[in-house]
Design goal:
The structure holds two protein chains of two kinds. Chain A is an alpha+beta fold. Chain A is built from 15 helices and 14 strands. Chain A folds into two domains: about 220 residues, 2-Layer Sandwich (Cytochrome Bc1 Complex, Chain A, domain 1), CATH 3.30.830; about 180 residues, 2-Layer Sandwich (Cytochrome Bc1 Complex, Chain A, domain 1), CATH 3.30.830. A seven-stranded mixed sheet of chain A has the order 1-2-3-9-4-8-7, with helices on both faces. Chain B has two domains: about 220 residues, Metalloenzyme, LuxS/M16 peptidase-like (Cytochrome Bc1 Complex, Chain A, domain 1); about 180 residues, Metalloenzyme, LuxS/M16 peptidase-like (Cytochrome Bc1 Complex, Chain A, domain 1), CATH 3.30.830. The chains are: A alpha+beta, B alpha+beta.
Chain lengths: ~425, ~425
């Protein structure tokens, strides 16, 4: 077994990597003196992967919306015991989440780390789906979907994506709908599972005051080794026009004030590794420069009473999709939209200043360093970076490659009116 | 280890040294009584202070300054602890070893001092324009509580249950009282607060004598008539259970059930109540989660929590509208099981482990360390984490039964939509 060690002395952190006998990529960042340990096992498979060629087959299969999330729920099922019980007995907290491009299973512990890690690997690698337990789960997930249906913040977000995209599955609610989950059955779950929960498509990330040799020993003791070669998973990439689908979307809900998101659809897609990470960083710095509470523009809008401190924005993107979202609460969402567009029509040199760039870069350095105090934050961001072929510990080094001109270029290509949509939740009468 | 310096005029400095983190925290906790009179002012005050200071005349300048200070985070807000409302103003910043700037600590201390002690003042009043805008924003924040249905239901349930008691007061205050505030009376209130409140100052982080000395030698002007907020009362049991239903255009019902107990947190038996609640509804392993969600598929979320300072247990669940009676019934059965001792040693063991694990995790987060020590001060609890763990470990089954026997259902609140029809 070959162990790779990456060390960044400037920030005082290091990361180990090795591949287990069973083919699992294992990463570890030691945190001396921490009482807690954190482990997360992630498959590069999320809600957007709903058209693919199942392992061992040749035809593309389209699966019901929400199946990745359904699968996440069902993996907790074991024939003879309950996974929550098991972790509770060990004094550890287990959880899971499904995103657009990944599904993660995780636990944090302050004792019994070894046994908790074994349990994690075993339950993720050993599915137990039956007709009966699949049916039972539909009721629980339907309740979860209804809970999100009442969440104005969630609705305004997905309405915005739905307006931006024609076909890209990122527009689909992660949990699916009450109707689509009814189409899910045991066989579809196994097909999805066998394709995406292959060790070659997974990452195990561990953070804590632990020893890497011991971790690898545990992994190899617990993992399955009977996997056939996976090869490349064929995922159908969406045929997505560059244009936005719909400029405006509104929905009435029980809320106090209108809630809005302005979305900008990105068409600079297909990047990977450093390039993708750099694009994300540049986009977020750009948004901070334009819209954060240290910008003149934010303060002007705030002073006019157009926005309050719920206002903010960020860029989110992966290889196959990308968008910037600017949102908050406002009595006059249309006026906010028009004001922002008028601002963005100005020449870059007028709205973006070098001194603001330098200051925001300073801010970023501090934010990154402070994020390294949380083992959960480290585990989650480092996993996300690895799935994009980037090493998170090189964050500051990558930042050094960013120049003011990159921000200006991104401003000109990305934040333009034609690529924008407005999503509003209006207070119901 | 915590080091406490008592300045004898209601100001205490608490220094917690730890070399584990890349960041440090300095926090002011200003303790006020929770009452209708000042709740709204106390909520508005810190956001006004955060907007402009003598040296940094507007929000833009404050925020730019913080960015220059390597993303130092200056957070303000209020907390409720029983009958106390606490104004918290804190700054979190990167340790100087990553920055190597001799002036850095001084500059961080300066901006915090600006916000707490040197607001933008004209003619013995706050800036009129800032007050106008922040009043408007506060009103919006109060109104927007309705956006989060679960929180809204919880707060409504608690308000109904604690009617007439200060614990029914919402943390953000009252809309109608916002209008009564102006730049003059809020400034008066601010002066009064700085003079008369108990103030707990925390430094949590890497060893730094400069910060300690700074607070020890700081001139806290005009301290007098320091206010002591007495311990809160527990609520009396009522003869009848009250059930309130509220109608709203929503997709999922929100059920809140409020229970009273008569065990104060100082009591030995309180620890048993905490363990009992975890078995009852405190986590993914609880009776409620396993029976209401996993076995009957009645709810996606269901959990119960002990409200330490008032010795209440509040439960909340998201359920289908027509499952109200069924869910209520199962919850009632599960509580009866607790009172009858129908739970296993294994369930006790699991509950204890969960609590102990959360105690053990506290020292991995600089914010939690600070908050726990503050809570210790508020509740006059001088036990170490190890002591607390020991007392959890020593809880016996009989004690849990005894504690759970005092748990009485008081209020049921249901947020529902009776005209809701499933879309076919």
């Amino acid at each position: 077994m070959e162990i790779k060690l990456y060390e960044n002395e400037k920030i005082g952190e290091k990361m180990y990597h090795a591949k287990s006998k069973g083919g699992l990529n294992v990463y570890f960042i030691p945190k001396k003196g921490y009482s807690k340990q954190y482990a997360t096992m992630t498959t590069k498979y999320g809600s957007i992967d709903n058209e693919f060629v199942p392992i061992g087959e040749t035809e593309v299969l389209k699966v019901p919306e929400g199946i990745a999330h359904f699968l996440e729920h069902k993996l907790f099922e074991e024939p003879d015991f309950n996974i929550f019980d098991k972790f509770s007995e060990l004094g550890a907290n287990v959880n899971a989440f499904t995103g657009f491009t990944q599904t993660s299973y995780l636990f944090s512990s302050t004792e019994n780390f070894d046994e908790s890690l074994e349990t994690l690997i075993k339950f993720v690698q050993n599915p137990h789906f039956t007709d009966e337990n699949v049916e039972k789960e539909k009721g629980i997930i339907a309740q979860e979907i209804k809970m999100y249906d009442d969440d104005a913040g969630w609705r305004v977000f997905f309405n915005c994506l739905d307006a931006m995209y024609y076909n890209n599955p990122v527009k689909i609610d992660i949990a699916g709908t009450v109707d689509t989950i009814m189409e899910i059955d045991k066989d579809l779950l196994y097909k999805s599972y066998n394709t995406f929960y292959h060790p070659e498509n997974m990452v195990l990330f561990i953070v804590g005051d632990l020893d890497f040799d011991k971790i690898m020993e545990l992994v190899e003791k617990s993992e399955r080794t009977d996997y056939k070669e996976l090869g490349n998973i064929e995922r159908k990439s969406p045929n997505e026009p560059k244009e936005v689908r719909q400029k405006l979307v509104t929905q009435d809900m029980v809320t106090s004030n209108p809630i809005f998101y302005i979305g900008f659809k990105d068409d600079k897609l297909g990047l990977d590794g450093m390039e993708e990470s750099k694009k994300e960083m540049v986009s977020n710095i750009l948004i901070d420069m334009l819209f954060s509470s240290s910008s003149e523009f934010y303060n002007e809008m705030y002073d006019k009473g157009l926005i309050n401190n719920s206002f903010g924005g960020y860029f989110s993107g992966k290889e196959t999709y990308g968008h910037s979202l600017i949102g908050g609460e406002s009595d006059k969402p249309h006026e906010v939209y028009e004001t922002i567009m008028a601002h963005l029509r100005k020449p870059a040199g007028e709205v973006l200043k070098k001194e603001n760039f330098n200051r925001i870069m300073n801010d970023e350095v501090g934010n990154f360093l402070m994020s390294l105090d949380s083992i959960e934050s480290i585990g989650n961001s480092a996993t996300e970076s690895i799935l994009e072929n980037f090493n998170m510990l090189e964050h500051l080094e990558l930042m050094k490659n960013i120049e003011f001109q990159d921000i200006i270029d991104r401003f000109n290509e990305h934040l333009v009116e034609e690529k924008s949509v407005l999503s509003i939740i209006m207070p119901a009468e | 280890m915590i080091k406490k310096i008592n300045l004898n005029d209601g100001i205490n400095i608490n220094v917690i040294e730890t070399s584990k983190f890349k960041s440090n925290v300095i926090a002011y906790y200003i303790v006020r009584p929770l009452n209708k009179d000042e709740v709204t002012k106390n909520t508005l005050l810190p956001v006004v202070l955060r907007r402009a200071t003598e040296k940094y005349g507007n929000n833009l300048l404050i925020n730019r300054r913080l960015e220059e200070l390597y993303g130092a985070k200056l957070g303000v807000g209020v907390l409720i602890r029983g009958n106390k409302q606490i104004i918290r103003i804190a700054v979190e910043f990167v340790d100087n070893k990553y920055i190597q700037d001799d002036k850095y600590i001084e500059e961080v201390l300066d901006i915090l001092d600006q916000v707490v002690y040197n607001p933008k003042i004209e003619n013995k009043a706050f800036d009129q324009d800032i007050i106008r805008k922040e009043k408007r924003n506060l009103k919006q924040r109060i109104e927007s509580k309705i956006n989060d249905k679960r929180e809204y239901a919880l707060e409504s349930g608690i308000a109904i249950m604690c009617e007439g008691d200060s614990f029914s007061i919402p943390a953000l205050g009252y809309i109608e009282d916002v209008d009564k505030i102006d730049e003059k009376n809020l400034y008066e209130h601010y002066k009064n607060i700085l003079e008369t409140s108990e103030i707990q100052i925390f430094y949590t982080g890497n060893e730094n004598k400069e910060i300690e000395t700074y607070f020890e030698n700081k001139n806290y002007l005009g301290r007098k008539n320091i206010l002591k907020v007495e311990r809160e009362n527990l609520l009396e049991y009522k003869d009848e259970i009250q059930e309130i239903r509220e109608e709203m255009d929503i997709n999922q019902g929100k059920l809140v059930m409020g229970y009273k107990t008569n065990i104060p947190y100082e009591d030995q038996l309180y620890t048993a109540l905490v363990v009992g609640n975890v078995i009852f509804g405190g986590g993914p392993n609880s009776k409620l989660f396993l029976n209401v969600r996993e076995k009957e598929s009645l709810a996606y979320s269901i959990s119960s929590r002990v409200y330490k300072y008032k010795s209440l247990i509040i439960l909340d669940a998201g359920i289908e509208f027509d499952k109200f009676e069924a869910t209520k019934e199962i919850i009632g059965e599960e509580l009866d099981k607790m009172k009858l001792g129908d739970f296993s040693d294994k369930e006790i063991e699991i509950a204890k482990k969960a609590i102990i694990s959360s105690y053990n995790s506290v020292d991995d987060n600089i914010g939690s360390i600070t908050e726990m020590e503050f809570d210790n001060i508020i509740s006059k609890d001088d036990r170490t984490v190890a002591d607390k763990i020991k007392s959890i470990e020593s809880v016996k089954k009989e004690e849990i039964i005894e504690a759970m026997k005092t748990v009485e259902l008081d209020t049921i609140y249901f947020l529902e939509n009776t005209s809701f029809r499933e879309v076919e």
